[in-house]
Design the sequence.
């Protein structure tokens, strides 16, 4: 049996991820938790603008319906 999408998120728990939102924001932080709706909790979250940190956000919950993707690497997109 192949790996499932949530296996990727399980492997990323405690590691830095990049989250792309529907409104164009990119947020980088340490993945602390997620659920079946793709709601994610990040610690030490930062909003990125290009390759620069725009502002520090701290601990945050991001609703799954606002997420385009979660990448287990901090490689920039766009």
Sequence:
């Amino acid at each position: 049996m192949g790996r499932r999408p949530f296996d990727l998120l399980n492997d990323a728990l405690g590691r830095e991820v990049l989250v792309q939102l529907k409104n164009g924001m990119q947020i980088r932080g340490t993945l602390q938790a997620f659920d079946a709706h793709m709601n994610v909790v990040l610690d030490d979250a930062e909003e990125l603008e290009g390759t620069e940190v725009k502002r520090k956000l701290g601990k945050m919950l991001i609703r799954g319906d606002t997420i385009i993707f979660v990448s287990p690497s901090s490689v920039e997109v766009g």
